[in-house]
Amino acid sequence: MRAYRLVILLALGLVGCGESESNPESTSSIVRGLSAAPESIDPQLARSVASAVVLTDLYEGLLTRNAEGQIIAGAAISWELSADERQYTFRLREGLRWSDGSALTAGDFVRGWTMLIADDTAAFYADLLNPVRRTSDGRLAVEASDDATLVVTLTAPTADFLERLAHPALAPRASGEARYNGAYQLEQYAPLGSITLLRNPYFHAADSVAIVRVEYQPFEQEQTEYAAFRSGTVDVTSRVPRAVFRQETRPDTLRTAPYLGVVYLSFNMRDAPSAVTRCQLSAAIDRKALTETIIGRGEQPAYGLIPPGVANGVLPFESRMQAVDGVDSASQPTGELTLHYATSDENRVVAAALQEMWRSAYPDLKVTLANKEFRVLLSESRAGTFDGMMRRSWVADYNDASQFLAILKSDAAANSSGFADARLDTLLAAIDSTTDPAQRERLLHAAEQLIAAQVPVIPLYFFVSKHLVARRVAGWQDNPLDVHPSRFLRLLDE
Amino acid sequence: MMVAADRKALGWQAWYAMRHDRLLIVSATLLVLIVVAVIVGPWLTPHSYQTMDLSAVLISPQWADYRWFGTDDLGRDLFARVMHGGRVSLLVGIVSTFVSLVVGVLYGATAGYFGGRVDHLMMRFVDILYALPFMFFVILLMVLFGRNILLIFVAIGAVNWLDMARIVRGQTLALRRREYVEAAEMAGASKRRIIFRHIVPNLLGVVVVYATLTVPQVILIESFLSFIGLGVQEPMTSWGALVQRGTELMSIAPWVLVIPSLMLAVSLLCLNFVGDGLRDALDPKDGHR
Amino acid sequence: MLRYTLSRLVSVIPTLLLVMLITFLLVHAAPGGPFDNERTLPPEMQARLQAAYGLDQPLWVQFGNYIGGLMQGDLGPSFRYPQSTVNELIGDAAPVSLLLGSLAFIVAVIFGSAAGILAAIRQNRATDHVLMTVAMTGISVPAFVVAPLLVLLFAITLRWLPASGLSTPWHFILPVFALALPTAAYVARLIRASMLEVLKGQFIRTARAQGLSSRTLVLRYALKPALIPVVSYLGPAVAALLSGSVVIEQIFNIPGLGRLFIQSALNRDYTLVMGLVILYSTLLVLLNLIVDLLYAVLDPRVRYR
Fold it and tell me: Which residues, in sequence order, are CB contacts of C180 under 8 Å at separation 6+?
């Protein structure tokens, strides 16, 4: 017996020795939770939001985002747009360096971007560079005219091009071994475990970076992350369980803000109920009850696809839902309908609530719920083989209103409804190439009206970003893109 | 000396059996009560398991308005849901066990009866399936088939038959050498008839005991599937699904966790005790295992 | 015995091949592919990805390629983690699960057998009843009820122990306990039952008649034969403990094999699924072999040729 006890102590001791130097109490280091293990920390290979969070600290594009999520100068200090709005000339900062001290040049950007669109990279975000013109031999029309100048030629004027540039996938790439040009450099990386970053001394604004060490810990379960926050081992969480919002008094560490994402039901327009029925289904949903009582995390009811707080396209927010002609005189919907949704706590609750709302409004209509595993749902969405409705959501990659309407473009990959309207396609193409804000807003408004009149989707609500931020962390700014670079955070003296 | 020891051993065994019977009786009674409650329960309350009342979210258990177990975070009556969930859990347990039983008994009896090369091949196949990660297999099947409750039954049952097949095969090997089987063989009965008429009925004892112990296992598996989000469809529920929801709400509404957990744990305890007791009663020589 | 071991080892190969084939067909039959993501990709991108990972080839070619790679110890690239190979991912997760699993195993065997022996010696007394009720409860209450309660009590309310992760020895206490509990409970019941049976046996009576003390009797003569049924249970139990408990790893946020398992299936990470199945099956087959060999050590009546 005694021998066994010794074995345990020894085993525990061995593990302990390996990691005892790490000191989470240290004042200049924080621990941030992630919603999943980042599948890659290579900017061009990364695919998910969790990866993007880490990459934002490790890399800096030509443009980048501040604590409020707004576009600011990054590696580029200035830029000019040609008169025909088709050519950008970026001037890089002087003395830019990689994390090993070697010089960073405009050519490193060309390298990163070229890799992004290469066939064998098979990058998820290759389409970010779609507006850039290709040369006759298929290369990008991006040129490093000298070490500090980058000239980018576009096929057509592109209103949201600068917004795209802040995306981590458009980071520069060092030749050979991975190096970093962001505020932090990689200290330790385990694909499934935690990721440790240290302040990058060669970062151009290194003096302003307060936190020396950032540890990212992935949490598969939000309950676990919440427990870690409550026990004091995590400073910033990536999400917040619903139960927290039900407490008598919400904790002062809770930070919620409107977020650029919309949840909607997509009909399968290849075989959908009539427009009148679709409109009736939409009208029977009590969005206020849905957002306030059922989810209750500060989500905003959605009557259109464009969320409030989006940078351009400031549209009248309330009552954008249009009644389709003939709804008033129509009889109540009957028959059967299926609502497909992916397995998750929030989706489950929302689906159950919708079912109940329709059941009490239209007793003759039978709505069945079909809870599908996420990837099964996605493959059905892609193939367009589902029947009835599907719960989908769309989250912006950058701050621009047109993305939210583009999900209904006839050839859009995200268009699960199969909705195809030539007028909408024309409008959307016009929106992309219109750079005058007022004109653009008019077009966006027209496109939204067109969608509202046909009800291919039923908007439900807009997401909110939800985090728990420890009291000792300062500098946290809520913003609609939910980006919070660690370089703008600091710790209060305790 | 010898005589005294034997008498002591006998009295000791009788007392032992009695004590165990008492446990068996108590658990069996409790189990019957739970089953009856689960069947009758939904008719006792005016609330439906799926109606939401958004003005009555997370009410704690009380007599007023028949909210005996309170409500969940969607204002659905927890009593109705626990009873309904119990039906689903027990049904999953029983049907899946039945599937594994039918497959396992037929497979095991056939292998055991034929023996030799057939037995070797059939058991080799079982060995191979044993090397397949079981949980993973169920998860894969759930993903493939979607969340159909019938398929949960089949998926769990189809994987669980392996143990049953092994046990039955062992018993059959022993039964084969019994006189009445040999007599039937000499009388010219067909193999099929011998398996169904002489072997299978004599396996009943073992099968019943094993089945009683499989039911709680299956219920646990179903609750595990619910935990990772592959359980039954809303608005249907099961004890496992209720417990899983409960763990998320435990800090603000403990009853949502405690009540279904208690129901689940007590039922599983009773089932295990009943299985144990039956084994002792049906196979006194084997002792208490 | 050596010959027996060798022939068993050879027979492992067809088993593993079949296991691989079944798994391969199952994962490829599952709807949804590895590149179905939150961000829906245009069809030409899907096609490009499929080609990059060789998914555009016929299934049997893919299987052949996979087996070819396997022969050289290459489990292929991960579909979900573009920067990592399956070898790297398993190499990362396996030590975590192995350490946690072996600690849980040691704890389960020590506490389980101690409780089982004690209950058998004190049969039908209060100690026996209490221990066996605890054991039965341990088997009957799911881990995902026990574990969150442990976290709530020890990590959040009392703040004695950390809630998640594995960075210091203190981090191991809760997950090891939660993981060991059902196994310990099972071992306790098995040991008690077989111990009682052994104690009734002829040779124990003889020994007792010769005046040996109870303590010597139990530890020297009864324990060894009583371990046989336990050993056969422990084969699969060890495999399950070592390959990680999904629930425990999720609740305590431990980057081990169990969590990887679920994720790889949900992500349709075909190669990772295959790699984990191969690892688990090999572990299971080998442990079963060890169990059979242990029989021979424990029970002099069993001989293998």
Answer: C103, C104, C105, C107, C108, C111
* Integer CA distances (angstroms), B163 to B93, B207, C188, in order: 16, 11, 21
pTM passes above 0.90? no
Backbone angles phi, psi at A40, to 5 degrees: -160, 150
Rounded to whole angstroms, the Cα distance separating A127 from A116 reads: 9
Min Cα distance B247 → chain C (Å) is 7
Question: Tens digits of per-residue pLDDT, B187-225?
Answer: 877 878 877 777 777 777 778 778 888 888 888 888 888
Q: Which of A241, A351, A353 sits opposite B248 (nearest CB)?
A: A241
Tens digits of per-residue pLDDT, B48-79?
887 777 777 778 888 877 788 888 877 888 89
Q: Which residues of C touch A127 (CB under 8 A)?
A: 42, 45
A14 shares contact with chain C (CB less than 8 Å): no
Partners of B50 on chain A (C-beta within 8 Å) are 352, 356
**pLDDT per residue over A430-481, tens digit each?**
988 888 888 888 888 888 888 888 889 999 999 999 999 999 999 999 998 8
Pairs of CB atoms within 8 A across A/B: 59
A455: phi > 0 → left, psi -120 to 50 → alpha, else beta; which? Answer: left
Question: Exposed (0-12), middle (13-18) or buried (19+): which is A25, by Cβ within 10 Å?
Answer: exposed
d(CA A271, CA B108): 50
Q: How confident is the model over C43-102, as pLDDT tens digits?
A: 888 888 888 888 888 989 999 999 999 989 899 899 888 888 999 999 989 998 889 999
Q: Per residue in B13-28, pLDDT tens?
A: 544 555 556 778 888 8
pLDDT tens, residue by residue, A269-320: 988 888 889 989 998 999 998 998 888 888 989 888 888 877 665 555 455 5
- Give the HSE-up count for residue C210: Cα atoms under 13 Å, Cβ half-sphere: 8
* Average of per-residue pLDDT across A374-388: 87
Question: What are the angstrom distances between the C-alpha of A43 and each of A46, A101, A120, A170, A206?
Answer: 5, 20, 15, 7, 21
Please name which of C122, C244, C54, A352 lies closest in space to residue B233, comparing C-alpha atoms. Answer: A352
CA-CA distances (angstroms) from residue C176 to A2, A4, A230?
19, 15, 21
Of A20, A120, A193, the CB nearest to C255: A193
CA distances for A181 relative to A58, A150, A199, C159, angstroms: 7, 17, 11, 39
- Dihedral sign (CA A41, A43, A47, A48): positive
Beta partners for residue A143, in sequence order: A151
Residue % of chain A over a pLDDT of 70:
92
- Cβ burial A151-187 (10 Å sphere, 16+ → b, else e): bbbbeebbbbbebbbbbbbbbbbbeeebbbbbbbbbe
Note the pLDDT of residue A42: 93
CA distance A290 to A294: 5
**pLDDT at residue A245 is higher than 90:** no
What is the crossing angle of helices B239-249 and B78-114, to 10°?
A: 130
Q: d(Cα C114, Cα C126) in Å, to the nearest integer?
A: 16
Q: Give the pLDDT mean for B228-247.
A: 80
| In the block, residue with structure tokens 């709680």 | B216
The residues pairing with A71 across neighbouring beta strands, listed in sequence order, are A65
Q: Which of C27, C140, C200 sits opposite B216 (nearest CB)?
A: C140
Does the pLDDT at position C180 exceed 70? yes
Q: Tell me how far CA of residue A290 lies from CA of A191, B58, B233, in angstroms.
A: 38, 16, 20
* CA-closest candidate to residue A491, choices A236, A294, A252, A321: A236
CB contact under 8 A, B272 and C139: yes
8 Å CB contact between A110 and A150:
yes
Angle of helix B204-227 versus helix B149-176 axis, rounded to 10:
150
